[in-house]
Structures are given as structure tokens and as C-alpha cells.
Specification:
Membrane topology: Multi-pass membrane protein
Order of helices and strands: HHHHH
Low-confidence stretches: none
Subcellular location: Cell membrane
Distance between the termini: 42 Å
Pfam families: CRCB (PF02537)
Helix content: over 70%
Shape: globular
Structural class: mainly alpha
Function: Fluoride-specific ion channel. Important for reducing fluoride concentration in the cell, thus reducing its toxicity.
Radius of gyration: 16 Å
Number of strands: 0
Organism: Halalkalicoccus jeotgali (strain DSM 18796 / CECT 7217 / JCM 14584 / KCTC 4019 / B3)
Length: 118
């Protein structure tokens, strides 16, 4: 990896983090439904999907895909992986992957919360 590549990832990451903060300000305080998280997950999934499938080139993909989307949300990577499995006509595996991510990630949060409070 060239130094410019690392700088692009860092600049994208800083931008993604600020954008996530701004979404929180626009969407407002958290309520029972995590609209802020849903918003960044959907927007990040859109952005990573676009970068991945538009053929924008390696460096724009590093800036937007790895950097900005990585800081904005990690859900976008999961979404792209699921779509790729469906595109490869592996729908059953896509379903298992999606369900596994949901159950294991929520389970990991629960375990982390439990460990943190013990």
C-alpha cells in the first residue's frame, strides 16, 4: 500500500465520522427506534454499493468505500456481501449469511453488555 492510499483512507474516515455526527444532529436524539443508526446504515450501504459496482477505480474506492463508509457505518460492507452472494445465485447462502450477521452481531452486543456490567 502506498502512502497516498493510507492518506485517502484516513481522509475518507475523517469525513465519514463527521458525516455520521451530522446525521445524528439532523435526525435528532435517540428514541425507542434507532433512526440515526438505520439512516447511516442505509446511506452507507447505498454509498458502498455505488462505489463497489460503479467501477470508480481503486483510489476513489479507498477514499469513499474503505474510508468514509468504514467510519460512517460497517453495515454497508455486510449489505454488499449479501448482494454479491445473491448475484452469484447463492440465495440460500445469502440468507444464512444475513441471518447469521444479525443474530451473531446482536448476540455479541448482548455478551459485551453482560461482560461490561459484571
Amino acid at each position: 500500500m502506498a502512502m497516498i492510499d493510507a492518506l485517502l483512507v484516513g481522509m475518507g474516515g475523517a469525513t465519514g465520522a463527521v458525516l455520521r455526527y451530522l446525521v445524528g444532529l439532523v435526525v435528532g436524539p435517540r428514541s425507542e427506534f434507532p433512526l440515526e443508526t438505520l439512516t447511516v446504515n442505509v446511506l452507507g450501504s447505498f454509498a458502498l454499493g455505488w462505489v463497489t459496482f460503479a467501477g470508480v477505480g481503486e483510489r476513489p474506492a479507498l477514499l469513499v468505500g474503505v474510508g468514509a463508509c468504514g467510519a460512517f457505518t460497517t453495515f454497508s460492507s455486510f449489505s454488499v456481501d449479501t448482494v454479491r452472494l445473491v448475484e452469484d445465485e447463492r440465495e440460500a447462502l445469502a440468507g444464512v449469511y444475513a441471518l447469521s450477521n444479525l443474530l451473531l452481531s446482536v448476540g455479541a452486543v448482548l455478551v459485551g453488555a453482560l461482560v461490561a456490567t459484571v
